[in-house]
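Hey, resending since the last one bounced:
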Amino acid sequence: MHELSLMEAVRDQALAAARADGARRIAAISLRVGELAGVEVEALRFAFPVVMAGTIAASAVLRIEREPAECHCAVCDAPFPAPDGCCDCPRCGTISRRLLRGRDLRLLALEVE
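The structure tokens again:
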């Protein structure tokens, strides 16, 4: 379950940002998880309280936003959804492999006190 190590990285980044801001508590952590990131959202939710225990984020709320995958056609310049990561452009039929978004896990925001 690599989601545990991903959540540990989120924790480390969140705690560093909160310390730099002089925060005493993290109330909420917001993440964006791409459709093609290879991350199980439920496993992230499961790992969250375990990883945050004993930190200033122990009582934080986890918010997860899903990001759909989107490709860009190099031939006709059309953006289009790509839930598989690679598919035919709906406008011109060219197979596109240029993924614009949907493969990342990002820390979007912290609510701190």
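Helices lie at 2-20, 41-52.

Sorry for the duplicate.
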